[in-house]
TrEMBL record:
Its EC number is 2.5.1.55. Residues 1-256 form the DAHP synthetase I/KDSA domain. HAMAP family: KDO8P_synth. GO terms for biological process: keto-3-deoxy-D-manno-octulosonic acid biosynthetic process. Signal peptide: none annotated. This is 2-dehydro-3-deoxyphosphooctonate aldolase. One of its GO terms (cellular component) is cytoplasm. It comes from Helicobacter brantae.
Length: 265
């Protein structure tokens, strides 16, 4: 099981290291392919006044320190094409944010690196149309078709993070997991799927109590892994706190998901 977990954004090295340390028992589980996640910049915050992160240069230095100290593989977001090369020198997975999943230049720039590319399905996208985003990466890397096997070979993943359902709400259509898994390994983003965009005053909300139930459903349907943002105290997190899962509660949930996965096999 792939697991990408960590705080939404780099708040400080101390907070990042504290969360990384708390995740060690999970990361060392031989049944888990673990990637530590944190963003150096949250470029799509609702408000101009919201905290975005330390930026590319300082953020990559901080992520490299985490990599050196804990030995974790890393994943972070990309926002502009010119960032691809610098990111590839530090992180193992470069993530295309959901709002940018159709941006050809961005996908091509990442595909020209040797890193895994994780494309998040836009909240506005038909899951079957994500095949075209996958093909952009595969063809850039010398492939010809979008199949599960080709995507594995060329290091292209897709992530489901819910679909817009009216204003301020997302829903997860579990059919999308099967549809997208026909042409790529699929990750289920359990925490962003319970986000409630724009319900706050200049910020998004969320309802993290639904993270476990949606995760159990996703693993039963069949996915290749999970994306779960976590914080030791979501109430003080500088981004996406309402939809995060407490780091102290993550181990129990992961154990449950592994058990369901084993039964499903």
């Amino acid at each position: 099981m792939i697991l990408m977990s960590g705080p939404c954004v780099i708040e400080s090295y101390d907070n990042l290291a504290k969360i990384a340390s708390m995740l060690e028992p999970i990361a060392k589980n031989p049944k888990i392919d673990f990637y530590f996640k944190a963003s150096f910049d949250k470029a799509n915050r609702t408000s101009l006044d919201s905290y975005r992160g330390p930026g590319l240069e300082e953020g990559l230095k901080t992520l490299q320190k985490i990599k050196n100290e804990f030995g974790y593989k890393l994943i972070t977001d990309i926002h502009e094409s010119h960032q691809a090369q610098a990111l590839s020198e530090v992180v193992d997975v470069i993530q295309i944010p959901a709002f940018l999943c159709r941006q050809t230049d961005l996908i091509v720039a990442v595909a020209k690196t040797e890193r895994i590319i994780n494309i998040k399905k836009g909240q506005f996208m038909n899951p079957k149309d994500m095949k075209h985003s996958v093909l952009k990466a595969i063809k850039t890397r010398g492939g010809k078709s979008a199949t599960y096997e080709e995507s594995q070979k060329y290091g292209v993943w897709l992530t489901e993070r819910g679909s817009t359902f009216g204003y301020g709400n997302l829903v997860v259509d579990m059919r999308s997991l099967e549809i997208m898994r026909e042409f790529a390994p699929v990750i289920f983003d359990a925490t962003h799927s319970v986000q409630m965009p724009g319900v706050g005053e200049g910020k998004s909300g969320g309802d993290s109590r639904f993270v476990p139930s949606l995760s159990r459903a996703a693993v039963a349907v069949g996915v290749d892994g999970f994306f779960m943002e976590t914080h030791f105290d979501p109430s003080i997190a500088l981004s996406d706190g309402p939809n995060m899962i407490k780091t102290q509660e993550l181990q129990s949930l992961i154990n449950t998901l592994l058990a369901i996965q084993e039964i499903s096999k």
